[in-house]
Structure formats: structure tokens, C-alpha cells
Amino acid sequence: MYVNEMETPLGKVYLGVSEEAVKYISYDEASFLDDRMDVSNLEIDLMQQLKIELEAFFAGEKNDFSVPIEVSGTAFQMKVWEALQTIPYGETVSYKEIAELAGSPKAVRAVGQANRANPIPIIIPCHRVIRAGGKLGGYNGNDVDRKVWLLNLERPF
Predict the structure, then answer these.
(1) pTM of the shown model
(2) Which of 71, 23, 22 is nearest to 45 (CA)?
(3) Phi and psi of 9, rounded to 5°?
(4) Which of 24, 47, 108, 128 has its CA 20 to 30 A from that of 36?
(5) 62 near 56, Cβ under 8 Å?
(6) Catalytic annotation present for 128
(7) How far is 17 from 10, CA to CA, in rounded Å?
(8) Tens of pLDDT along 86-105?
(9) Which residues contact 98 (CB under 8 A, 6 or more apart)?
(10) Could you give the residue ranges of the DSSP H alpha helices within 33-143?
(11) Among 13, 46, 124, 126, which one carries the catalytic annotation?
């Protein structure tokens, strides 16, 4: 695992990649590090590509990502994360809609938990999920300010 940090308009983010894929984007350095991991801060090609794409996204110049990603989670989390990737840039959907797309229409709260466990926020756009009626709801540990910033970036008023 290669881990770097990057300053963004949302504060410092920590990036974790393998030779093949992006594994993590985190606002909390310790959230994905494991004592058993061999960690290097080398900036391999994939890390450089990820940083370039994130910088372009934050500058409003890019609305999708081409870096390969790899996540692991429960079967339900995987379905939710796949559903999240279908939400178009600049649009929002409800937790209920994601639950339906994931094949569990009554699992609205579980969708919220899967969003919270999302290892690659921004690329897997959990910030695009809002409560029924248009209310926001939490984002990455209840930091609604980050969610608002991301939604405003994607839907400038």
C-alpha cells in the first residue's frame, strides 16, 4: 500500500493506492491504516494520476474519474457502492432510491451506514445521497460542511 496526503479545499485527505487500484480516500489518516500493512509514501504513477484527477475535480474541471478503484465490503455495501456510482454528476438521490437500487428497498438506514463506510468518497460519490424531502444528512462522520461544499461544486447556483 502506498499512502500520501494531499491538501484540498476540504482539508487534508489521505490517499491509499496499491500498484493496481485506488483503495482509499480518507479525511482521517488512521481510518484505513492497519498495523499489519506495509506502507510506503512513495508517489507511484497511480498516485500521481489520482492527485491530478482530484485536483481537476476540485477545480471544477473534471466530473468523472478514470483511475481504477478496488473496494471490499459486505455484499450489501458492495451493492450500495455500485449504486452510488450510477448517480450522475450534479444530481442527488435519496437514501431510499439507493436502497431500492441495491435490492433492499427497506434498508434505508443500512444505506446510510454503507455510505459512512465508503472507502473512496468523492470517486464513489456518497455525497450525492440526501434525505427524502431534500434535507442533507450526514457525510463522512457527520461533516455536513464537506457535503455542502461538494454539492455546490457540482451544482453551482
Answers:
(1) 0.89
(2) 22
(3) -60, -15
(4) 47
(5) yes
(6) no
(7) 20
(8) 999 999 999 999 999 999 99
(9) 80, 83, 84, 111, 129
(10) 45-58, 75-84, 95-101, 108-116
(11) 126
